[in-house]
């Protein structure tokens, strides 16, 4: 199969301005436009995700494949993997994105043994390396799928069987090696089944210790081979399990402190995972910054009224404007980027649907970024925020925070006070945001 | 008002055996029965809660008072508080519970100044002390209400105004002093409005630092005055705020580590708060034990299909059996107990409803405790659990966990493995639990 | 109290164009601008709601009053009600809205008897009538509060006690009479406690029959007095009760059919109630149109991550654009309008917060309306929709739908078919909406 | 494959009494014990479900097959289907259940054309008929899977393409014919994808008309062929779609009235579907009885803290006691039964897990039934219920309900009333239930 037969298009999608009605043109994503001192492309650092776009066949728990992609049907698994790679790199080029991401099993078939699986992975990532010599696209991160194979049905690092833990170590080493070989900017761990289905058969404390050990070994190895990017943990509260140990950013913060991993492990946050945990995306991002753990983002959206991971393409400009506002306040991404952990709906079966979805979402992100920049420059939100906390800049308040006052001293001073509440101005601020979005 | 005019009953409620149909007799709660080496009363350590039972008038967001308690209507606030205390201690006696709990503002009226409020608190708790000389009831914990007064509408410790922080310190000092004077076994902090309504006006990192400082001061003071019980944080994810910083046990673990408070602060967990955070009660308890933070329990239940804190009386024997099973495995309560943070429904307006609710729930707890004891003695759950993880007791597995193996060593060993999954036996274990409940 | 002392402003808020940064100026709401053949004011038909803006003191389940409005403190209840009316009508004028709405108990104090309550209501609504002679504002709807008083704690029409049903009839008659006297365009029933707290004490079938009878009597009376507007039921799934019988639009449709009320009763839909029932606002609106029951809208928004009614001011332009798109397709409001069943946050304690919230939300609605108009004119959504269902316009398909084919005939024709799926184009359509919002 | 090689057991599972600890013996399910005038087997009418137990391979959205059943791997699809039937009927015999249920595609492979699919179905159901001559098991209901094949990705009856509607008619006719041939007691329709993924591409009113027509044709055909059982609709609010039109019992009631189907169509209710819609199982059952639509039950349980259909085996005795209490009040099942729409967890990979799960759940149901019987006989719940509504048995109250009083007459009578609230006694009733469970 020649990749140019899958997408009916030769030229990369281009910026055409806000008046365009072409679903295959960018209206806001203008990669060279400067935003807060960087090119827009370098601020947003978009990555296309191999899994959802090229490996998922369109199934759900009540129905099978809908996409019928040509590279999913055939008997020569490695040949199909090469065909898939051709289509994938063609899409990277058409979308003109600077990054991609993958799981090991997305790109190469599992073999009859770990050795064979690792060889397959090497064979395909060698092809990637070759393609990357001439293409602009780089690797944002790689990862290992430690949850789909039935051997991992009770977890990988947290499995009750140490042989499964061991097997997972073998697989993750190969995935990190491949990521390193491709100059990946980060390495991601999503603990798909690191959790439990029922507490009746689970020793939580023991499993957390196993997970801590697993990550510590990975961190040591990363240093040894000179992989400079961070290990990123991707919090998710549940699904497929009833409970995942990496529930949300705050939970992972507690875990990383306990196992002394704060210096080497950061967070890869996702909108859909955030809302499944009961948080807004912005909340998770602010929590990560407060903990010093911000790393990268999976950009997608869930459905607020559904209780599972829908991984829809992000289209909500206002939500992203607030996330990017926080990010820009902290200087933007370092190693991270915006990974499209998003899948077209299973009814979107045309090849163009894949392109259209990415284009529409990239534009929504770009609009969010521009709104964030404007709010920041105008101090539209930061101005009122600083004013609200100004009292804490006074000497006595600073002394309290610095630990220079005892409870009794402060309590004594309280006796003379009758503090009056001040308006929180929420509706005013919501109106301000609406001015920019 | 003489307290004996409120409850139409003179004698304490007694154990009558499982055949009894009297809603004012215990069918399972037999205080002197030995359970795992302690009297049942000493295992369960029930506490009646002042707030829900004597201070809440039956209102909800769409309607006002339904209970019309005599001590809620009148002009002499301190006299009413004394009447309320009479009724409360009468109920403690009738229920024959070993403990009670209170917020400062539950028991004494707020004054026109902090000084006056503190004086009122002292006046009433002096009465408590007097009563406690002759009554069996002791104080499980005290706490300060830092959320109802409008001055705290934007938080107490996390308020943008340092004067509010200061005022809260003044109030909490008085509450801890009162708790100490009454030989309270613990002191509780529930961060009712330590959180946010909107991130648009909130500096999360700054507020967390304020909260850390507040608790550190409290811990220092506790040591200074020789208060030996722990400070207990009560996690809750939301309500009244959109987000509370003490979201759940895992979040508090991260917070306590960051501010170096792990040694002095433990957790007071509640069923209804657990499910609002997306967790089972058992999950929170196991998380607390894994983190070394288990302290005490607010025993109640929420409605799984509602999104707010209903604080209903706990009636689910099976749920509690699993919680107590975990607790008994760890030796049971030390300073903690089962506090009835539960309110009768606002339609349960008869005085007897108050007694009946406590009796029915105490019985449900007792049944849960007896089931837990039986499961433990039979190793009905612990047996299969230990068998499931037996592989980790092998030397190589132990060496991995002990940090004596590198990723490369383990990965090398993986090449020879093809681990096969084993049944998780969930339905078998659920059937086992049903045998005991 | 002179009303001009509450709001620090004399002149109505005016349209100032999109460049304005004044939070007390309209940027999009340009009342005389024509939208789909009507003035914008006549399309949106905004109403200010007495309850949230003038009667709610800022309390929540964990804290009391924050607003400290002058008309809420004093001993002469009728005088305070008159003061409140002055402020309310001043706000109607400042916001330049065409409508307002009220519950009986919002505007007049409850008396010691039903007779006295009815007299109080008459006294205040007579004042309203007088004010309305010179002011532009009209009454969108009136309603009776049958849920706050403790007599209604177990429901009004569905109460187990027929005397409570009777009392409710007495109250609702007075409220409809007052609404009729003020030329109200509709009369609303929100079944605040028409539901249950527990099924253990509830006879659901019997209670539904009571509710059907109550509404039938109301409809008969409406016809008798010549009240021409519809009775509107406001669906809500829960809160304050565990379950309300008017759960959502579809449930009410079943109820109205059973009790033969479809011709006279329509729906008043609310965004926050929709999401509490698990539906989008747009879903409820489309369901109502499909059932022929669309009446009016309570415009507000809930928090998707919270499980209770937050009644925040509507700010989500995209959500409203889709609702208005459906509404404009059906010709827009007849008797209904956009009632601000929205409350400023309890921290928004300044008088200006009240104005700012309304202005920001009116602007968001106006933007939504303009986007809806543009989408309709461009057939941006309706074009693809009609194309998708075009097959059903073919003769054989029409014959099936018309009931002219038997199952066997259709099954026979199926044997020759192998229908192929077509793309649902969801991402394309989401991108289209983003072009307009 | 000989079926006796799958289950390592020859004899049916028997009643062994409550002291038994054998997970493969019944402790409460004593089929010949009389309960409310029928044998327990005839009250509970258990059915094993083909789909979950024999056709689902253990996959979830994040992982594939775990069970590796022998009949799922091979090239001769019809031979595998026969092997599967052998195992299935062996399990029916071992569990000694009186009923089973199936979808067309569960039992027979889909062919290359509708004709071939129908022939396959006929071939297998002929085998069923043969087996049923000698086995006790009967067919509770059959159904057609109109959601898994990609042709149905946008719905079956509600598809935008009338050819898909037509194809679905062809399939459903064959399934009803097969059900009729096997003397099925009911025929079930679950509208798996009769709903929408996004309202942007959906014409709700049109699709509801299609669905109404589809069911009307089916009802006409049922009468024509003399199928005497009811058509059962199975409400579910969502999943796989964002919204299913058969959301819950109340929604279906509205739909059936509109399309005049109330006489011929009843409801098949499921616990997990109920809670996904925000209702308790008991609520759905009571709603169905109040609407005259009760038909049959899918007995399983969901996880209250998860937002998707987990279909776990029902183990909650208390929940089922209340459902059966309502059912027994109405005389118990007529054509319906308890279908195990429940799947063992994907980690429960041993053959015995299948048997153990059914046994544990049948026992839990039996306990629930016995508790319901005892409560009914003691009038433990019905007594207080009747007392609570006794006022409505008075002449004036009856006259109101009978439509013999006008609003004005009732309002006039209200003027003399001051009804006082009475306790709802919720905690008392909860304690009562705990006495029986």
Summarize the SSE layout with pairings.
The structure is a homotetramer of 437-residue chains.
Chain A lengths: L33 E2 L2 E2 H5 L1 E4 H6 L21 H19 L3 E5 H4 L6 H21 L3 E6 L18 H20 L4 E4 L5 E2 L7 H22 L5 E3 L9 E2 L4 H10 L6 E6 H6 L4 H11 L2 E5 L18 H13 L8 E3 L10 H28 L3 H7 L6 H7 L5 H8 L11 H11 L1
Parallel strand pairs in A: 3-4, 3-12, 4-5, 5-6, 6-8, 8-10, 10-11, 11-12
Antiparallel strand pairs in A: 1-2, 7-9
Helix pairs in contact in A: 3-5, 5-6, 6-7, 10-11, 11-12
Describe, in plain words, how this protein is organized in 3D:
- The structure is a homotetramer of 437-residue chains.
- The first copy, chain A, is α/β, with parallel strands linked by helices.
- The first copy, chain A, has two domains: 3-378, Divalent-metal-dependent TIM barrel enzymes (TIM Barrel, Alpha-Beta Barrel), CATH 3.20.20; 391-436, no CATH class.
- The first copy, chain A, is 45% helix and 10% strand.
- The first copy, chain A, contains 16 helices and twelve strands.
- The first copy, chain A, has an eight-stranded parallel beta barrel with strand order 3-4-5-6-8-10-11-12. In chain A, strands 1-2 form a two-stranded antiparallel sheet.
- In chain A, helix 3 runs parallel beside helix 5 (114-134), helix 6 (162-181) packs parallel to helix 7 and helix 10 runs parallel beside helix 11 (317-329).
- Chains A and B meet through helix 6, helix 7, helix 8, helix 10 and helix 13 of A and helix 6, helix 7, helix 8, helix 10 and helix 13 of B.
- Chains A, B, C, D: Keywords: Isomerase.
- Chains A, B, C, D: This is Xylose isomerase.
- Chains A, B, C, D: Its EC number is 5.3.1.5.
């Amino acid at each position: 199969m020649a990749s140019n037969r899958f997408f009916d298009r030769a030229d990369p999608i281009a910026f055409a301005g806000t008046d365009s009605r072409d679903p295959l043109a960018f209206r806001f994503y203008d990669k060279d436009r400067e935003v807060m001192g960087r090119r827009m492309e370098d601020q947003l650092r978009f990555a296309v995700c191999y899994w959802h776009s090229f490996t998922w066949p369109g199934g759900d728990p009540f129905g099978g494949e809908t996409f019928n992609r040509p590279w999913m049907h055939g008997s020569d698994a490695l040949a199909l993997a090469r065909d898939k790679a051709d289509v994938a790199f063609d899409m990277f080029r058409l979308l003109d994105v600077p990054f991609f991401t993958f799981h090991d099993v997305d790109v190469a078939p599992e073999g009859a043994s770990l050795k064979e699986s690792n060889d397959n992975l090497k064979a395909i990532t060698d092809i990637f390396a070759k393609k990357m010599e001439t293409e602009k696209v780089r690797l944002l991160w790689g990862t290992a799928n430690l949850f789909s194979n039935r051997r991992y049905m009770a977890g990988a690092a947290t499995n009750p069987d140490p042989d499964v833990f061991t097997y997972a170590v073998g697989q993750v080493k190969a995935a990190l090696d491949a990521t390193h070989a491709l100059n990946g900017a980060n390495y991601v761990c999503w603990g798909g089944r690191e959790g439990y289905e029922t507490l009746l058969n689970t020793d939580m404390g023991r499993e957390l210790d196993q997970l801590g050990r697993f990550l510590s070994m990975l961190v040591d190895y990363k240093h040894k081979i000179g992989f400079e990017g961070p290990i990123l943990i991707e919090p998710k509260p549940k699904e497929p399990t009833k409970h995942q140990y990496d529930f949300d950013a705050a939970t992972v913060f507690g875990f990383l402190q306990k196992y002394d991993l704060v210096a080497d492990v950061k967070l890869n946050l996702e909108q859909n995972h955030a809302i499944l945990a009961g948080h807004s995306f912005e909340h998770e991002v602010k929590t990560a910054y407060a903990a010093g753990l911000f790393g990268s983002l999976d950009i997608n959206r869930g459905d607020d009224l559904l209780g599972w991971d829908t991984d829809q393409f992000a289209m909500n400009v206002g939500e992203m404007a607030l996330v990017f506002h926080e990010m820009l306040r902290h200087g933007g991404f370092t190693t991270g980027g915006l990974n499209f952990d998003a899948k077209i709906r299973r009814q979107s079966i045309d090849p163009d649907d894949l392109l259209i979805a990415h284009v529409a979402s990239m534009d929504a992100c770009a609009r969010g970024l521009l709104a964030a920049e404007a709010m920041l420059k105008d101090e539209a939100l930061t101005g009122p925020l600083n004013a609200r906390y100004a009292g804490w800049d006074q000497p006595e308040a600073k002394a309290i925070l610095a630990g220079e006052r005892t409870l009794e001293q402060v309590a004594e001073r309280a006796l003379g006070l009758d503090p009056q509440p001040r308006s929180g101005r929420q509706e005013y601020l919501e109106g301000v945001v609406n001015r920019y979005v």
